[in-house]
Structure to design on (132 residues):
C-alpha cells in the first residue's frame, strides 16, 4: 500500500475545520485545475481527472471533529482511500492531514505517486487559503 500524506496548520478550532471537510460539496474548492465534471452532495462526489480517470467517491466513515474517510463508489483503476484527520495543535488551531492510501503496483506507483502527492499537497494548501 502506498501512503501519501500532506499536513497543514490552520488557525481555526478543530470543529470548524471538520465541519468544512465533512461536506463533500466543499471539496470542489480544494481541487486543482485538472479536475472537471465535478458533481457532489454532502456525502458523495464524482469528477474527472484530466488525462487519467473518472472517479466517484462517498464518505465511508465519519468520526466527528477527528477523521473523515472517503472511498470509491465504482471500481477505480486501483484501490484507494482518501482520509482527512484533524487534531488540535498547540496554538489553539488545527493540524489537518490529508492521507491518500493507494494499492499501486510498481508500474502504477511510478506513474501515479507523483500526481497523487501533488493532489494531496494542493488540497491542504487550498484548505489553508480558504479557512486561514
Amino acid at each position: 500500500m502506498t501512503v501519501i500524506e500532506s499536513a497543514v496548520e490552520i488557525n481555526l478550532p478543530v470543529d470548524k475545520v471538520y465541519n468544512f471537510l465533512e461536506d463533500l460539496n466543499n471539496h470542489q474548492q480544494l481541487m486543482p485545475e485538472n479536475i472537471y465534471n465535478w458533481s457532489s452532495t454532502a456525502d458523495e462526489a464524482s469528477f474527472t481527472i484530466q488525462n487519467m480517470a473518472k472517479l466517484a467517491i462517498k464518505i465511508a466513515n465519519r468520526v466527528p471533529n477527528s477523521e473523515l474517510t472517503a472511498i470509491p463508489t465504482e471500481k477505480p483503476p486501483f484501490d484507494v482511500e482518501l482520509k482527512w484527520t484533524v487534531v488540535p495543535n498547540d496554538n489553539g488551531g488545527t493540524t489537518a492531514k490529508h492521507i491518500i492510501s493507494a494499492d499501486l503496483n510498481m508500474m502504477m506507483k511510478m506513474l501515479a505517486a507523483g500526481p497523487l502527492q501533488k493532489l494531496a499537497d494542493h488540497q491542504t494548501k487550498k484548505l489553508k487559503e480558504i479557512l486561514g
